[in-house]
Design goal:
It is built from nine helices and nine strands. The protein has helices at residues 89-111, 133-142, 147-157, 168-180, 195-201, 217-229, 243-252, 271-281, 307-321; strands at 42-44, 65-67, 185-189, 209-214, 236-240, 259-264, 282-291, 325-330, 336-341.
Length: 342
């Protein structure tokens, strides 16, 4: 989504949106396994050899295997415990799911090289172009969109700046994550017409809420009637003011570590500040989704005059080394990073 968290778009051209075990041996009839195949710490007496007699005992007449005891380590004290990482089950499951999704995307890219992000014929909005047959296949075989949500998507697509809307397949992933962690409190930074706010509100329990932050109420007015039609208007708390101000107010009112999920998609120059404040507001096991982390591929070589690309690139590098979270960067839409708070 394009920058819109601090300044409304100009009336002219639309803003830039996106340019073991080991394998068992096979035994054939009449074959015997040779003594060399035995593990290194176990050796077998050869023909005519006898094992050394144990103290007080007579060595057996027949040959027997000689076993070398493996080195033993001192046992742990009875009251000592092995430290285990404290990761909620839902987060572990979600991370595994996302790993599968990423691997699938990479395999698709290898099979369909003309669709891979960065190649001459590819779209500039992600790994798979919006107009590609493969993306349409993905939508035809995975998208489950609420009728009113679809209505708002099509309405927004006709808007001059409709390309600022989050992609429907990405929105569905956000909703699935919200359901997976059984979220009740959500933050959205950057609302536009409210497609993703509606998307998340639909899967929240009746007492759940979305704190929706934006500075332009005109766009939100497009989605408001549909929020009401879907019966979730009471779940969406729209706050028309700078998002930093809203986040500070939430922290000041004692709501730190009470939110389950946050979605960041506003002005890119403020991404780091949004992330840090959301990290304070999100509880352990919560998720922060950060959109547009590819920024139309400009993060590869950010120009000195492109503050948005520089800001996103710096945050991407920071997230990689941030010990407070686990992350997954996914090639969906214009790139989205999921940060799981530890």
């Amino acid at each position: 989504m394009s920058p819109r968290g601090r300044h409304a778009p100009p009336a002219g051209d639309p803003p830039s949106r996106h340019p073991s075990r080991a394998e068992p041996s096979i035994w054939h009839a009449g074959e015997r396994r040779k003594h060399q195949d035995q593990p290194k710490h176990r050796r077998t007496a050869t023909h005519g050899q006898r094992c050394p007699a144990l103290p007080g005992r007579t060595a057996p007449h027949r040959t027997a295997p000689c076993v070398t005891e493996p080195r033993r380590t001192a046992p742990l004290a009875p009251d000592s415990k092995m430290p285990l990482p404290s990761v909620p089950k839902e987060v572990a499951i979600g991370t595994a799911m996302l790993g599968v999704a990423f691997a699938t995307g990479m395999l698709a890219g290898k099979r369909y090289p003309s669709l891979v992000f960065g190649t001459p014929k590819s779209s500039t909005s992600g790994m798979i172009g919006k107009s590609s047959p493969l993306r349409q296949y993905i939508l035809d075989h995975s998208l489950r969109e609420h009728p009113i949500l679809k209505k708002l998507r099509l309405l927004t697509a006709d808007h001059p700046w409709g390309r600022m809307m989050v992609s429907c397949e990405q929105a569905q992933l956000m909703a699935n994550l919200v359901k997976l962690i059984k979220a009740k409190k959500v933050i959205e930074i950057g609302v536009f017409t409210g497609y993703n706010a509606l998307n998340m509100a639909l899967v929240l329990p009746d007492n759940g809420r979305v704190i929706a932050c934006d500075i332009n109420e005109d766009y939100a007015k497009i989605g408001r009637p549909l929020w009401k039609e879907a019966g979730v208007e009471h779940k969406i708390d729209l706050r028309i003011k700078p998002a930093i101000q809203t986040l500070d107010e939430l922290l000041a009112s004692g709501e730190a570590e009470t939110f389950d999920f946050a979605f960041i998609d506003a002005d890119k120059e403020s991404y780091n500040e949004y992330y840090e404040k959301c990290l304070c507001l999100i509880k352990k096991g919560g998720i922060i989704a950060i959109d547009n982390v590819f920024w139309n591929g400009k993060v590869l070589k950010p120009r000195k005059d492109d503050l948005a690309a520089q800001s996103i690139h710096r945050l991407n590098e920071k997230l990689l080394r941030d010990a407070r979270i686990n992350i997954s960067m996914l090639p969906i839409g214009d790139g989205v990073t999921l940060a799981f708070k530890l």
